Amino acid sequence: LVLSLGWLGPVLGGEEKDGEVVADEEEEEAEVVSDELKEEDGVLVLHEHNFARALNEHQLLLVEFYAPWCGHCQRLAPAFAQAATTLRNESSLARLGKVDATAQTALAAEFGITSYPTLKLFRDGNRTHPLAYTGRMDAEGIVRWMQRRAGPSATLLQDTDIAATFISSQDLVVVGFFKDLRGEVAQAFYEVAREVVDMPFGVAESKELFQEYGLSADTVCLFKKFDEGRTDFPVDPLQGLDVAELTQLLRVHSLKLVMEFTKETSDQIFSVKIPHHMILFLNASSSAQLALQDGFRAAAGAFRGKVLFVTVDVTGHGADVLPFFGMTPADAPTLRLVKMENNRKYQMEQDSFSDTAIRTFIQEVLDGKVKPRLMSAEPPKDWDSRPVKVLVGKTFEQVAFDETKNVFVKFYAPWCSHCQAMAAAWEELGERYKDHEDIVIAEMDSTANELENITIHGFPTLHYFPAGPGRKMIEYKSARDVETFSKFLENGGMLPEEPPVVPKSPENSTGREDPLGTDESRDEL
User: Fold this and answer.
1) What 3-state DSSP class applies to 309?
2) 213 lies in a domain?
């Protein structure tokens, strides 16, 4: 259930008179040399001459390193500006700034900028150890992330009334009960609080509060207004509190035992990184199908943290994901388990939707006793007569692993902008080699076809299958143009040693853009 499929006059302004254009250039150069701090939409415009001043004047400075051509940077800009305005209106210590990394190459090199946008937090003027931004790339996410670093990450709860008010204030609240708020365990808790910004955090150390909530030892409690209402995570007195472990536990248990897939919940579902998703597809307008949720929910508790249970309404928001499973609304009700690391899908037989049957099926999948269900389209009638051969799941093996052929395959998605951009080059490559007996140029739509032993993580992915025994496979990771493709083929599946071709403005739809434009310049699943 991987649904995040994709994002997607005179130069200087003077008249065409030498003297005026030169004057404009001189004025611009004078502006760049100055250490004056200027703003655009509330965001500080930074460069190598004013960067040190900005760090000295602002205790917390979040800097976006961007490229003007970067589509993701352009989409982030309004949210970044909105966050800057919000923080300023709150009289926060936090400020936002931006650096054009394509123009300020010295700063880009100093801070190791390799993709756009990259956000880094500078604290107390320290430019040697900036903190990587780990929050959401929207205005609210940026503001919350900065607020946690500008003020206390957790609220001190001093008595039962304050604690009760705090705990009832939101649907999810985290409270750390520690006998020593200055000890290592509490400090680790504060570190978690700085990262998990979508839940309020509180701390308590009074005996009164320990007693009120039935505790005798250091414990982190997650209070929630759904499911079991409260989940306790006792602190191991010998091992202490592990930041990564507690963060994941809070993420897992902050979700409902059974999540309904909607536009509002999709980010939660995929950000928690639970390794398997068990999905009940149903038609919400059918009372009989809605009743199947009872057995589904009853099975969920035994697999918490290992398998996330999700319901998908095939007539609502979930209709958009049906093609990923090769399904139509008429297939509901039905169950699928997805292994998230490789998108393998497992289909449960529809004999029973009972909790016992569901638990048994899941355990058999986890134990490796069930084979995945692989999708395959039907091959077009002329699939083998085109310059670019059209492969599907059921024909892939016989073509790609033909020991008499060298086969170069493009794995693509119809919606992928990077695939569309290289389509003409791939067709030209097919025309160039259509009469070669031992070279085959092919392509496969990986949204409609799946392979048992090959997992495609992003689009386009290019694999070369050389002739001969051994079922060898070589991933192509260089420039996507006909001449470079040809050199690769003529050289037996490798490129001769020479300086790489670097595209000027490739986009990488993982949410950041890669200035190198190699294998990362593709849409990720």
Assistant:
1) strand
2) yes
Burial 167-180 (b: 16+ CB within 10 A, else e): beeeebbbbbbbee
Annotation says 70 is catalytic: yes
- 162 and 129 co-located in one domain: no
Question: Are residues 301 and 245 both part of a single domain?
Answer: no
Do 114 and 202 lie in one domain? The reply is no
Say if residue 316 is in the same domain as residue 264. Answer: yes
Joined tokens for residue 332: 């509901």
User: What sign has the CA pseudo-torsion 210, 215, 221, 223?
Assistant: negative
| Annotated active-site residue in 87, 419, 429, 439 | 419
Does residue 221 carry a catalytic annotation? Answer: no
Residue 497 in domain: no
List the catalytic residue out of 83, 186, 307, 416.
Answer: 416
Q: Could you tell me if 64 and 46 lie in one domain?
A: yes
* Residues 263 and 321 occupy one common structural domain: yes
Name the active-site residue from 44, 55, 62, 70. 70
Annotated active-site residue in 55, 73, 139, 175: 73
pTM of the model: 0.71
Name the domain count of the chain: 4
Active site residue 73: yes
Residue 78 within any structural domain of the chain: yes
Per-residue pLDDT of the chain (525 residues; tens, 9 = 90+): 333 332 122 222 332 223 333 333 334 444 446 889 999 999 999 999 999 999 999 999 999 999 999 989 999 999 999 999 999 999 889 999 999 999 999 999 999 999 999 999 999 999 999 999 988 999 999 999 999 998 889 999 999 999 999 999 999 999 999 999 999 999 999 999 998 988 999 999 999 999 999 999 999 999 999 999 999 999 999 999 999 999 999 999 999 999 999 988 988 898 889 999 999 999 999 999 999 999 999 999 999 999 999 999 999 988 989 988 889 999 999 999 999 988 899 998 766 899 999 999 999 999 999 999 899 999 999 999 999 999 999 999 999 999 999 999 999 999 888 999 999 999 999 999 999 999 999 999 998 999 988 988 889 999 999 999 989 999 999 999 999 999 999 999 998 876 555 444 444 433 444 333 333 444 555
**Domain membership flag for residue 511:** no
416 flagged as catalytic: yes
Which range marks the domain in which residue 58 is found?
Answer: 39-150
Tally of CA atoms within 13 A in the half-sphere of 142 that contains its CB: 28
**Residue written as token pair 């386009």:** 460
Based on the domain organization, do 130 and 160 belong to the same domain?
Answer: no
Angle at Cα 113 formed by Cα 110 and Cα 118, nearest 5°?
A: 125
Q: CB neighbours of 212 closer than 8 A, spacing ≥ 6?
A: 160, 163
